[in-house]
Structure formats: structure tokens, C-alpha cells
Design brief:
This is Glutathione S-transferase family protein. The chain is of the alpha+beta class and about 250 residues long. The chain is built from 9 helices and 4 strands; from the N terminus they run βαβαββααααααα.
């Protein structure tokens, strides 16, 4: 298998997939691209696929296996897990696996768009890249670059981030170390989107000691620490590119 992972700074979805690759031990060649500069568009040789242009994740990592491009960090992590045998990042039990996947869907639909919106509002990308096929993504780029942030969406994003932290806090209430059994996909995905929220939605973490301790444990976990060591900037958690579209149903 000839696998190349094109990733950004270890934050958000790139962090999740890097940690997943290291945790599973699947051998992938790493190629850093500047997601915040739009290098995913035209910066991946030979990768031509609708999934690349219309990824629901927005500007996330791309895994190219034998010339076939795949996107969306949850699915990339599942692919790596299956290549490695299928029960490293997700539980083997069918119901427990459903719980993990349901959690990840909630995370991508609710928390990820909020985190990306807050992140690009705080540190806007410099220019809109050329070659964006997805009109919705192009609009999000334009809004981020020009600083046209909607006050209501900022408030909504802070509220959704706080709701996400509340759910993490509740999940850890029984004293467990990780979100579902052993550390895995849910931890990597959730950490990737929440680790940069302290300066952007600080109130969300107030009075959440279990979440704070969990964040520290995930950060120190070997596969996550290895991913973070790939950073080319002092604070990779502050580097953002447009993420998933904010859902329109509340």
C-alpha cells in the first residue's frame, strides 16, 4: 500500500488523523501542506476526486492511497483502523462501536463547525485560494479572509463549544480516563477540535475539572505527543482554516 497523508498543523482534523496513524501503526508517508493558505487546492499531486473538492469537513487532511484520495478525518481514522485490524481506535463490540460513531457524528456536526468558525475569526487566513470547486466552502473562505463574522454565529459557536465541553464533562463523570473504554477515535477527534478553544471560548472550560484533566491526558498520550511534535509553529492550536459548514437547523 502506497499511502501519503497530506496534513496541516497538528490541530483540528489534522491532529486527529496524525494521532490515529501513529496509534494504529499504519505506515503512511507524511506531507505537510498549509491548509490555512489553501494548499489543499492544487497542492496534492494527482489527487482528483469529488470527495476532495466537496469534503464536508472543509479544509482537512487528505489521505492518498495508491493514487486514490480520501477525506474527512473520522472516516480516514476508520480506514486506518480497518487497515490495522479494526479494533484499535474503535471498540470491537457493535454497540460500543455505535456509541463512538454517534459521538463523532455529533462532534463533526455541532462542535467542529463552531470551533473552526471561532478559530478563523480570531486568526483569519490571508487570502482566498484559487481553485475552490465547492461554492459553500469558497463563501466560508471569503467571509474568513474579509473578517465578515456574524455576531450571532460567533455567539452560537461559543454556545455549541460550551455544550460540547459539558458533554465531555458528563461522559467523564464516572471517573473513566478516556471517553469510551481505551483511548481512541473519539478522544483524538474531540481533542483536536477542543484543544484550541481555551483562548477562544474560555468560559466553556470554567468549572470543568474532568475535561481539563482529560485534555492534559490526551495531550501527553504518545501518539498525540508525536503528532504535536510535527508542529512548525509555536502554537499550532491557533492555526485554523475554514471547517465544516455551520448546520442550518439549529
Amino acid at each position: 500500500m502506497n499511502a501519503i497523508l497530506y496534513h496541516g498543523e497538528p490541530n483540528g482534523p489534522s491532529l486527529a488523523v496524525l494521532a490515529a496513524a501513529f496509534e494504529t501503526g499504519v505506515q503512511v508517508a507524511l506531507r505537510r501542506i498549509d491548509l490555512a493558505a489553501g494548499e489543499r487546492h492544487g497542492g496534492i499531486p494527482g489527487a482528483q476526486a469529488p470527495e476532495l473538492d466537496y469534503s464536508v469537513e472543509g479544509e482537512g487532511p487528505v489521505l492518498v492511497v495508491d493514487g486514490v484520495a480520501m477525506t474527512d478525518s473520522v472516516f480516514l481514522a476508520c480506514y486506518l483502523d480497518d487497515v490495522a485490524g479494526g479494533a484499535i481506535l474503535r471498540p470491537a463490540d457493535p454497540y460500543a462501536r455505535w456509541q463512538v460513531m454517534a459521538w463523532c457524528r455529533w462532534l463533526v456536526e455541532r462542535v467542529a463547525p463552531a470551533a473552526a468558525y471561532l478559530g478563523t475569526a480570531a486568526m483569519p487566513p490571508r487570502t482566498v485560494p484559487v481553485g475552490i470547486a465547492n461554492a459553500d466552502l469558497a463563501e466560508r473562505w471569503e467571509q474568513a479572509v474579509t473578517g465578515r463574522c456574524d455576531a450571532a454565529l460567533l455567539a452560537d459557536s461559543r454556545a455549541k463549544t460550551a455544550a460540547g465541553v459539558t458533554r465531555v464533562e458528563a461522559q467523564l463523570a464516572d471517573g473513566r480516563d478516556w471517553l469510551f473504554g481505551a483511548i481512541g477515535l473519539a478522544d483524538f477527534e474531540t481533542y483536536g477540535w477542543l484543544c484550541g478553544m481555551a483562548p477562544l471560548a474560555a468560559e466553556a472550560l470554567v468549572g470543568r475539572p474532568r475535561t481539563a484533566a482529560w485534555l492534559a491526558r490526551v495531550k501527553a498520550h504518545p501518539s498525540v505527543a508525536r503528532a504535536l511534535a510535527l508542529a512548525t509553529v509555536p502554537e499550532p492550536e491557533k492555526v485554523w482554516a475554514p471547517g465544516p459548514e455551520i448546520n442550518r437547523w439549529g
